Amino acid sequence: AGFLTGLFCIPLLWTGNYGWAASCIVLNRLADGLDGAVARHEGITDLGGYLDIVLDFIFYSAVIFGFALARPENALWAALLIFSFIGTGSSFLGFAIFAARRGLTTSLRGQKSLYYLGGLTEGFETIVCLLLMCLLPDWFPVLAAVFSALCWITTVTRILLARSIL
User: Fold this and answer.
1) 163: exposed, middle or buried (C-beta count within 10 Å: 0-12, 13-18, 19+)?
2) Is the terminal CB of the chain with fewer CB neighbours within 10 Å at N or C?
3) What is the DSSP letter of 72?
């Protein structure tokens, strides 16, 4: 339900309803936090952890896709940001695979279903950026460029950390 609420951002952004889109972003994130709390109480599952991370990345990209639809002149900046999300997502998930294979664990960000490798652009920073884009849609190119650069810093630092650990 939280994921579907988040996907409502696409038509809302496409039609320029930035305030409503921001509301969907906030509701999506609240639902994400609640499902995590329920999982920690009821018991973490592999499927739950899998869906959590996969749906998060789809949601983040969906919001950016909505901005591209809203203003096609921003499509290049949207593509750059989605490209950058691929770097952060793949460096995160790729490391988690090999951490599991080696039996590495961390509780740095609380109990998670997979190895949680931190970085400069994590969930909180991404949501702040998405909300800023809703509040300041004319600044989308600047915000996308800056956040893309931060994503690449995260990706490179994760690769370097993986190199030292793996």
Assistant:
1) exposed
2) N
3) G
Element (H, E) at 94: helix 75-102
Closest by Cα among 116, 117, 114, 88 to 100: 114
Q: Is 0.85 topped by the overall pTM? A: yes
pLDDT tens figures, 49-75:
889 889 999 999 999 999 999 999 999
Please say whether the beta carbons of 87 and 155 come within 8 A.
yes
40 to each of 10, 43, 50, 82, how far by Cα in Å?
30, 5, 15, 30
CA 67, CA 12: separation in Å to the nearest integer? 9
As beta bridge partners, residue 165 has: none
